[in-house]
Amino acid sequence: MSKLTKLQEMIAKLHAENDQDSERDWLLQHLQANNTPEMMAQAKKLTHSELAILTQLAQAGEAIPFKQLQAQSELSQGMLSRYIQRLAKNRLVEKFHTPENQKAVVLRITARGQEIGELHHQLHQRQRQNYEAVLANYSEAEVETIAQFIEQMIAARENL
Questions:
Q1: Element (H, E) at 103
Q2: Does residue 1 sit within a domain?
Q3: What Å distances lie between residue 147 and 19, 29, 115, 139, 140, CA to CA?
């Protein structure tokens, strides 16, 4: 097998694994124990961005202003707003205004949203531990070589 063929096979495997199905399956498996079919169907439809938002709100531990969440997010204001609308519609997040500032939108995660956000955080902690275990098998120099290789392959793909 040529080096190029081997690389193309590995890239195909990476793409197949990177479609978030394994994350969603793990999340649903861990939610299944004490949730209704409605909740399971709802969780199945969440995008990765929505899961990330729930995780941020769950980690905050308190209600936070929309603007603060936006400052911490890589999403545009419009996209974040659309995701928050969907999460609020699904009763995973509550939107409200404080008496001090009726214009500013404040977000509070619901108990259902908290559970999903915490599970998503646990998932990413487990992934990080797995990645660190794999990386422990390589020296800093080897990891640097791998990183350079990946950067060069990305550049080669973009130079069409």
A1: strand 101-109
A2: no
A3: 22, 33, 35, 12, 10
Residue 153 lies in a domain: yes
Phi, psi angles (nearest 5°) of residue 61: 75, 0
Q: Give dist(CA 12, CA 38) in Å, integer.
A: 34
Among candidate residues 121, 123, 49, 124, the one with its CA nearest the CA of residue 87:
49
* Cα atoms in the 13 Å half-sphere on the side-chain side of 99: 0
- How does pLDDT run along the chain (160 residues), one tens digit per residue? 788 888 788 877 776 655 567 788 888 888 776 677 777 888 888 998 999 999 999 999 899 999 999 999 999 999 999 999 999 999 999 999 988 888 889 999 999 999 999 999 999 999 899 989 999 999 999 999 988 988 888 888 888 7
pTM: 0.79
The range of the structural domain enclosing residue 89 comes to 20-158
On whether residue 130 sits in a domain, the answer given is yes
